[in-house]
Each structure stands twice: as structure tokens, then as C-alpha cells.
Write a structure and sequence with these properties.
Elements lengths: L4 H5 L7 H15 L9 H15 L2 H10 L23 H8 L22 E7 L1 H6 L1 E12 L14 E3 L8 E8 L2 E8 L8 E3 L11 E12 L8 E4 L15 E7 L6 E3 L2 E9 H6 L1 E7 L2 E7 L8 E4 L5 E2 L2 E5 L2 E8 L6 H14 L7 H9 L3
Parallel strand pairs: 1-9, 11-17
Antiparallel strand pairs: 2-7, 3-6, 4-5, 8-9, 10-11, 12-13, 14-17, 15-16
């Protein structure tokens, strides 16, 4: 889903629940496909419903504010929603007043006492430049919800159990009629007594307070593959929050951010750096040891090398992500240092060379001659 949910509804990030509902009602009327036949209206209507679905519930809104779309994506604790769940135009208004559930007495109530998958989690991890190039193992600490070992995730004190909720008779929902400017509607909401589970625990587990899960900080070792870059996302299966009532755990998503290096920069799978040589080395050529991510490597400077020439060390770049055998190149830009001062002996020798070359070294001085060497 592209776009910011607050922008989709046209509200501020500190909007109240009532402001969210009013914005949704206004936009739902405008873009519902039953009344708006323009191209793109149905897609816009889906965006509006998705934004309302996330922002109207405090828990999902909180996750969205913290983690963005990753915190409420399908399987990340967000509630799936589809245009097909909405019937005719009148059904919009039930969504406005009740969030979910059918209109009238003929709608089947939804029971939420089954297993629920745990939330996915996100962790941002910084890597040094060379760690991103070559990969390796990193130890991380991640706070998440783990299933309570004392009650085995049931939330009930060992030796006790749960009974059917008397408020909702085990349905997990309560229904009441609501009068609105558009007529009378049945409002279905989560049962406040059992919180939608349909059951009430007789005695809560003392270790987890009846939640069935506890907040714990876990140490993990994750493998960073060679060649990762800024924004690379790694998925660590089953290391998110524990599920509820025997549900499977969510996943952990690790987003990587690479710190800059003082000497090297990266362009795709190529590494770039710059070295400075003397004008004599540029004229005569030489062999130099240069720094690479693999260590010292010998680089041949051809005679007559011009300033800003780029020389290549093949296969000394970044391994290709997913195929570490294939690597990019190291591209080295050559800068030539022209001295601002020379001693008498150097001047004498250079002036002799200038005469041999037939170069004029009067008013411009020897610096003009040196500059001329690099533009021949």
C-alpha cells in the first residue's frame, strides 16, 4: 500500500478517533464504486478503507506509528481487509459505526478464540562498510513477547482453566442497535469482558498476569550475507512475538544501514577511492601499494598518466548479493600533485628539461611548464 495512511485520510498524526471516523465517512461516500464510476475510484476506496482499518484501532495505529507498513502488514498483526468484504453502499455506514461485523440480525458473529499468529517485529541494524561487503555473523538483542512457560501460553494459573463468557455467551462479540442519521444499524463490537476470546480465565497465571505471554529480551546470532547494502531487509523466521492461544510466532525483519567509510565509497557492486601521486610519478610511471577492502594491493601507474584517470583493480569490489563468487571492481581515481614550491636544484633541472623540450619558461615560470606537460 503506497502512501502515508494519515495523508490518505487527510488528517494530522495526532488526530482523535472521532476525527479519523469523520474523515473516513466523508471519503468513503465520495469514492465508493457504487456512486463513483471514475477510473481509479475503486483503488482509492480500498486505500481509504485500509487506512481507516489501521488508524481506527489503537493497537494497530501504535504499531503503524512505530514501524510503518511493516508493523501492520498481513501476518504482522494487522487485520486483513478487502473490498470484497463490503457489500452495497449502505454497508459503509456499518463499517463507520462498528468497524467489523454484519448489518442486521442475520450476520454471523465472529469468534476469536482460535489461535492467533504473533506480530512481526522490525529491527534496524548498523553495519560497518567492510561488514556489509564481506558479511558475517552479528549478535543482536531483540525485545519480544515469548509464550509464558508457567501456564504454557494459556494465561490460566496451573491447575485451573477457563469458562464460557457470560456476557457474550462465547461468541466474543456483543451487539446493540444504534440510531444514526442514516437509520438504525446493528453495532457489533468486541466483548469487553473476554476481550473477544469467548472465554474467561478462572484464575490468571501469576507469572504473566493472564496474558499468556511475557516481554523478554533475547540474544540472537544472525548471518549477514556478503554484498548487502543500505535498505537490505533480512527475514529471521519465527523470531517475532509469540502467538496467542497456540498461534505461530511472527517473524523478525532486520533492516540494514551501512556506515560510510573514510576512504572508500560504493557504487552498486563497485568500490571507488582516490589516490594522489607526484607529477614525476605521473610522467615516468610507477608501481604503488594501494588500500583495498582486501588489504594492500599493487597498482601499476602507466607513464604519462593524466589527472583524474581512473584505473581498475578487477574483482576487488563488492560480492554480488546472492552470488558471492562474483565481485565488482575497485575503481581508483588518480590525482596529480603539482608542487607550489621547488628548491634551486629542482628548478635548475626542470629548466634544463624545459630547454630540451623547447618550452618557454619565462613569465609563466616553471609551473607553466609543468602544467603544459599534462596537456600535451
Amino acid at each position: 500500500m503506497a502512501g502515508d495512511y494519515y495523508q490518505i485520510l487527510g488528517i494530522s498524526r495526532d488526530a482523535s478517533k472521532e476525527e479519523i471516523k469523520r474523515a473516513y465517512r466523508r471519503l468513503a461516500r465520495k469514492y465508493h464504486p457504487d456512486v463513483n464510476k471514475e477510473a481509479g475510484a475503486e483503488e482509492r476506496f480500498k486505500e481509504i478503507n485500509r487506512a481507516y482499518e489501521v488508524l481506527s484501532e489503537p493497537e494497530t495505529r501504535s504499531r503503524y506509528d512505530r514501524f510503518g507498513e511493516a508493523g501492520v502488514a498481513s501476518g504482522a498483526g494487522g487485520v486483513g481487509f478487502d473490498y470484497g468484504d463490503i457489500g452495497g453502499f449502505a454497508d459503509i455506514f456499518e463499517t463507520i459505526f462498528s468497524g467489523f461485523g454484519g448489518m442486521g440480525s442475520g450476520t454471523t458473529s465472529r469468534r476469536r478464540s482460535g489461535p492467533v499468529r504473533g506480530d512481526d517485529l522490525r529491527l534496524d541494524l548498523k553495519l560497518e562498510f567492510r561488514e556489509a561487503v564481506f558479511g558475517g555473523e552479528k549478535q543482536i538483542r531483540i525485545p519480544h513477547l515469548e509464550s509464558c512457560q508457567v501456564c504454557e501460553g494459556t494465561g490460566a494459573k496451573p491447575g485451573t482453566g477457563a469458562h464460557t463468557c457470560n456476557t457474550c455467551n462465547g461468541s466474543g462479540q456483543v451487539r446493540r442497535a444504534t440510531r444514526t442519521p442514516f437509520g438504525s444499524f446493528a453495532q457489533v463490537s468486541v466483548c469487553p469482558t473476554c476481550n473477544g476470546t469467548g472465554e474467561v480465565i478462572e484464575e490468571k497465571c501469576e507469572a504473566c498476569g493472564g496474558a499468556g505471554r511475557k516481554q523478554e529480551t533475547k540474544k540472537l546470532k544472525i548471518t549477514i550475507p556478503p554484498g548487502v547494502d543500505n535498505g537490505t531487509r533480512l527475514r529471521v523466521s519465527s523470531e517475532g512475538d509469540a502467538g496467542v492461544r497456540g498461534g505461530t510466532p511472527g517473524d523478525l525483519y532486520v533492516y540494514l544501514f551501512v556506515e560510510s567509510d573514510r576512504e572508500f565509497t560504493r557504487e552498486g557492486i563497485n568500490i571507488k577511492s582516490t589516490i594522489t601521486i607526484s607529477y614525476l610519478q605521473a610522467i615516468l610511471g610507477c608501481r604503488l601499494e594501494v588500500n583495498t577492502v582486501d588489504g594492500k594491493e599493487e597498482l601499476t601507474i602507466p607513464s604519462g598518466t593524466q589527472p583524474d584517470t581512473v584505473l581498475t583493480l578487477e574483482n576487488k569490489g563488492v560480492p554480488k548479493l546472492g552470488n558471492s563468487v562474483s565481485r565488482g571492481d575497485h575503481l581508483i581515481t588518480i590525482k596529480v600533485g603539482i608542487p607550489t614550491k621547488i628548491n634551486a636544484e629542482e628548478r635548475e633541472l626542470l629548466e634544463k628539461l624545459a630547454k630540451i623540450k623547447g618550452e618557454h619558461t619565462g613569465k609563466g615560470g616553471i609551473e607553466g611548464f609543468l602544467g603544459g606537460l599534462f596537456h600535451k
